[in-house]
């Protein structure tokens, strides 16, 4: 497959059409939400939900949550936060990762799960749009069969159109610094979307005050990302050096798409898989909670964890049956979110259109998703050449998108270093991670002990974001 640098024309060939599409209609509908079922009393922050119609005939209706900055919304940055998958609901960003609410972790008894405030929300420093993308994700839906098609370039085009339409409806934010943010699989989509916004500013309206982008544990070069899990497992002492050397010599760096006659490689990969079969790939120091994240006798939800024979989808899907009350498991909150988002009172409060969505699932199936972009590095290079700021961060205990792969593709850009690799500290002078800054406005930071998303180390993530978004050195 051609690298995406040769496919820019696919994304940017329609500036005039985009102008007409954006100008022809404003965002379809939006509502102020003052109360949420499960939360005691009025919300102490400003929440808006709504739909924006995108596509030639607005056949795709994208649902969003918008939280206005709790600092100074007139001047604080405006940003998006896209959740990965592809196909994981924006509720994950709102309630688990960087948003102002969390689920109260307590044994589920059949009543509505309760919500509590997140004291480390990023919305204290920025207004954030959480968008259900691609189509079919969360509460987003399509009015036509054609509109149900989804893929990398489809996400770029639809979210580009979404943002210009949303800003036409919210002109008070046009002057705010704008950042595109996301984690996990959105490392494939966010760079081309950011570039689309930049290129679209030449012809489309309104002009977006784009300043840069933020990516956490981003999938970037899909093939090398998957294969980097083996050397990462070796560096973290999950497999012995002898086995690693056998894997290297017999598999030649390819640990997934193994030639059928390479019996030695398959044998060593089987030994490797046995070593890591009960490791939590999202956070290798966190408990492995298979019983929480799967449901027996259910093909959609009951597939077991496996590094090579399962997709990210299987590890993210929420269960439909009551698991044991393993409250120490990160996945237990996902279980609670399933029952909360499928409650009719919640849907009414969020203003979900009746009849548009059946069962809410935190992460949709990816079987019909078109993987158009295999490598997003060329987009990073193009954005850096335009001077945009970027923050790339990695939890160093994430095995799904290993930090060594992220460091590798950043090094391939050959940017001059302006701030050498060093520790960055918390308020109590404890080491929170390591960082380096490059001449092309790119900052790379690790979060010590961090997992796949900011939810694993919320304090460290908040300190990092607070400093970077303010233009300060980590």
Automatic annotation (TrEMBL):
Q: Which GO terms describe its molecular function?
A: serine-type carboxypeptidase activity; sinapoyltransferase activity
Q: Which UniProt keywords apply?
A: Glycoprotein, Signal
Stored Pfam families: Peptidase_S10 (PF00450)
InterPro entries (alphabetical): AB_hydrolase_fold, Peptidase_S10
Family to which this protein belongs:
Belongs to the peptidase S10 family.
PANTHER family associated with the record: SERINE CARBOXYPEPTIDASE-LIKE 19 (PTHR11802:SF29), SERINE PROTEASE FAMILY S10 SERINE CARBOXYPEPTIDASE (PTHR11802)
Q: Could you identify this protein by its name?
A: Serine carboxypeptidase-like 7 isoform X2
Organism, by scientific name, is Cucurbita maxima (Pumpkin)
Q: What is the lineage of its organism?
A: Eukaryota, Viridiplantae, Streptophyta, Embryophyta, Tracheophyta
